[in-house]
């Protein structure tokens, strides 16, 4: 990879997403706001109908969406797009639809207090108008899935589609307009200016999937209107190959996971920690698997655009120039700017001064580090920003317990890669630098609804009376006596019965 070709403009580089003006965005938002206030919370039948229309939109146009994503990427097999952006998310939508009635049913806690005249109810109510900002790596699936959860919650939805995949965005916008009224769901396209205006709208909730850098800007813009934000970001996802693991299996699965979607997945492994005695075995097997994928009939997914192609190449060359060793899966193959394909490599000897050590790669490049004790791994992972995912291969004994207890990450798969995001119904989200909030299944429904409490009382006391003089006693209840009893109970728990 030492001779990296200069990036070239592709014949289709002039295709751009339609830029929505601030006035258009404001008008679309106000239309949805008025419709929500006029209708109020939609019935379960209306919500299910909206989910069914979204399912039809995706299934009846699957081939067109696959062709659009293939064109946007330069090369992306239809099977990849169908599995990741359509079939994979439909399972989650079906679960939401099936359980929507149970999730929406009011809960009645504090049943033991009802005979004393106190009754409580908790309802899940819609938020209002929800904004969804999508990424380019799974351009359809990662807007349709949160949009489905928002619709299930009874909200109106505005989607900001990534400008990096303009054909898919234009097609999705057109199909949404066929299946939904603009006061139900609408798709917005455009570049950074439209994105900035979109982020600053006074949504009732804003959902963003993308990089931590852009996520910080989105959260800052939303914060000016006190809009709550769910951030689904990424990070340097670690893989730990424990002592006693099947090294060959771990190497093959890790490399296959690294090359998913051309390495352009927020859940892709970034760095693998391998015991020193088996490093050569792991490296050899990983490179073999990478070469097998590279030489397959469909070939690897292309890097999405020239800018990202150049960025990934630059990360590898920076590491090489600063002393890292770059192990090529396909000896002699070099990155091709015309097709935007980068031969997969494994990089060893990475140091802190290399850009690849801290920047998310988002390409077919895997870093490998060796270790002698699990403490080394734990201290390295715990000392970095929390990743979106962590992976573990091997026995789940004391080392596994230490790793999971002392490190933070959004979710984990054991003995495979990214499986936890594919199991329908499980909550998915990051923590710290990798995001905040969650969705999928019940977590998505809860994200886009508000838990509203209502209390009815026939008690003989009043909050207003309790908070007005005289304070010594209110309807036979002494605040001082209550405080003394609570303090006594706390002392017993802290110091033990009979001590003070």
From TrEMBL:
Keywords: Oxidoreductase. It comes from Microbacterium aurantiacum. Residues 21-452 form the Aldehyde dehydrogenase domain. PROSITE patterns: ALDEHYDE_DEHYDR_CYS, ALDEHYDE_DEHYDR_GLU. The keyword Protease does not apply. The active site is at 232. Belongs to the aldehyde dehydrogenase family. Pfam families: Aldedh (PF00171). This is Aldehyde dehydrogenase. It comes from the Bacteria.
């Amino acid at each position: 990879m030492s001779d990296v070709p200069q990036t070239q403009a592709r014949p289709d580089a002039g295709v751009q997403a339609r830029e929505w003006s601030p006035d258009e965005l404001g008008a679309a938002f106000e239309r949805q706001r008025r419709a929500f206030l006029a209708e109020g919370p939609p019935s379960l039948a209306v919500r299910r109908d909206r989910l069914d229309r979204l399912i039809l939109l995706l299934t009846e146009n699957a081939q067109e969406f696959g062709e659009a994503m293939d064109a946007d990427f330069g090369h992306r097999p239809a099977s990849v797009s169908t599995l990741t952006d359509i079939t994979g998310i439909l399972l989650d939508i079906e679960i939401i639809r099936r359980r929507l009635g149970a999730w929406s049913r009011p809960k009645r806690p504090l049943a033991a207090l009802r005979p004393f005249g106190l009754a409580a109810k908790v309802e899940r109510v819609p938020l209002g108008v929800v904004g969804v900002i999508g990424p380019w790596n799974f351009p359809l699936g990662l807007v349709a899935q949160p949009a489905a959860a928002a619709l299930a919650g009874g909200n109106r939805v505005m989607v900001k589609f990534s400008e990096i995949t303009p054909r898919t965005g234009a097609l999705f916008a057109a199909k949404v307009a066929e299946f939904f009224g603009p006061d139900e769901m609408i798709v917005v396209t455009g570049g950074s200016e439209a994105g900035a205006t979109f982020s600053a709208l006074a949504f009732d909730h804003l959902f963003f999937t993308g990089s931590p850098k852009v996520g910080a800007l989105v959260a800052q813009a939303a914060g000016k209107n006190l809009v709550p934000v769910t951030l689904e970001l990424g990070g340097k996802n670690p893989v730990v190959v424990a002592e006693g693991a099947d090294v060959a299996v771990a190497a093959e699965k890790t490399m296959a996971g690294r090359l998913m979607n051309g390495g352009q997945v927020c859940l892709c492994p970034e760095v693998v920690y391998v015991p020193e005695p088996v490093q050569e075995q792991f490296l050899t097997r990983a490179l073999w698997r990478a070469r097998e994928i590279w030489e397959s009939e469909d070939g690897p997914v292309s890097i999405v655009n020239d800018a990202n192609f150049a960025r990934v190449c630059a990360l590898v060359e920076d590491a090489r120039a600063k002393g890292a060793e770059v192990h090529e899966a396909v000896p002699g193959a070099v990155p091709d700017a015309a097709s935007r394909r980068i031969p997969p490599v494994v990089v060893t000897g990475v140091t802190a001064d290399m850009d690849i050590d801290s920047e998310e790669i988002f390409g077919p490049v895997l870093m490998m580090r060796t270790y002698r004790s699990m403490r080394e791994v734990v201290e390295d992972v715990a000392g970095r920003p929390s990743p979106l995912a962590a992976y573990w291969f091997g026995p789940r004994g004391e080392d596994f317990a230490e790793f999971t207890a002392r490190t933070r990450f959004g979710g984990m798969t054991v003995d495979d890669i990214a499986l936890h995001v594919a199991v329908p119904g499980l909550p998915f989200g990051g923590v710290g630098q990798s995001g905040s909030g969650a969705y999928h299944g019940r977590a998505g429904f809860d994200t886009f609804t508000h838990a509203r409490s209502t209390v009815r009382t026939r008690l003989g006391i009043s909050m207003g009376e309790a908070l007005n003089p005289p304070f010594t006693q209110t309807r036979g209840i002494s605040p001082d006596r209550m405080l003394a009893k609570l303090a006594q109970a706390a002392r017993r728990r802290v110091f033990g019965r009979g001590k003070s």
